[in-house]
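Ticket #4471: structure output looks truncated?

Reporter: J.K.
Steps to reproduce: submitted the chain below (169 residues) through the standard prediction queue, then opened the result file.
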Amino acid sequence: MGSKKDNNKLIELIKSTEPVELRKVGRPSEYSKEIDDKICFEIATSSKGLNHICNSDNSLPSAKTVWGWMLNNEEFRNNYIRAKEAQAFYIHEEIIEIADDSSNDTEILHLPSGPKEIENREWTSRSKLRVDARLKLCGQLNPKKYGSKLDVTIKKLGKDLEDNETYSE
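Returned output as attached by the reporter:
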């Protein structure tokens, strides 16, 4: 508990008519090109999501604020879309690194008959999971480039065939 003297100072401050300068606290909520650039750069050059990026840097707004910008600010929305497309390329590069890294694929099992090299299933299973998750994410971020669906539209004399038509030469 505060002393009576501290309480009197608080009462004087409350009754004072002079404006009190308050410190700005919290995260920024106003859109700025500088924050836009910082968020989009972080997205494009990492495999981290928006929540992680915003939560790891107090100079950035909350992810909820950024989602609001996407709904209301066409410039930011376009920059964000380009950053996510770049992120798909970045993640694709990670996939190659993970798949090529065989440094922990085997372990040495010490048997009475001598050492034996065996597959480190925990490591190889985790690597497969990391690759599969990133492949799926790449397909969602940039389906035209990394998606698993093939475009098999057949054209007949420059016209798309209808579902009930068949192709004949």
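Triage note (M.O.): checked the attachment and the full token line is present. The chain has seven helices and four strands.
Status: closed, working as intended.
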